[in-house]
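Each letter names a residue; structure tokens follow underneath. Both lines appear below:
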Amino acid sequence: MSLKRTGYLASALLLSTLGSCSVDNTASTDATVTTLTVGGSSEAYEMIEVLAEAYGQTGAAEFEFAPSSQTSGGIEGVKADELDIGGVSRKLTEADLNGELSYLPMVETPMVVVVHDSVTGVTDITAEQIKAVYSGEITNWQELGGPDETIVLFDLSEDENEKVVLREVYLGTDLAISPDAIVFTEDDELVEALAVTDFSMATVPAEDELEELPLSPLTIDGIQ
């Protein structure tokens, strides 16, 4: 599927090419235990946790997870030798890497436009209609072939990677977002609100849990 039709969040591991791992000498055995400190983007944590659990079973290392933050926290933490592994959720530029970091892509997650199941009669949305909803030009589902109800638009703050992807692919950098949009700082909180709010809409990463909620993804320009 083309990036012209959908956006992707890219989860990756970020490692320092200059620093070394910390060593914890307090273990009860004679052998030293390498401790790897992990931080960075919350979107990458689930994948890193799976890898850490599997690698940890070899006994070669232990993992300490710092509170999750954002991609910028993963980058700066590794550069400052405060983290051994940084999780990121966007593709990095040469400027980000700056010759100091090793970047290992893990997975790409599609972004999807989803609506609450109370929105009937709407299964497809065009790229231009997405812009119109986010700008506030379209405010009623009836304008998209749905019920005569106000669109409840949930959005993420501008510094969230999901919003960066959405702007790159559909909205553009200069589009003013409707003042009626309800803005969240965490995508998990947004999805929870979306699932209990009639006539709501948002753009979120595609995850298995969406199938268990009263939410439906829309096709975009006829593409699923």
In short: Residues 1-6, 18-30 have pLDDT under 50 and may be disordered. The two ends are 9 Å apart (CA to CA). The chain has six helices and twelve strands.
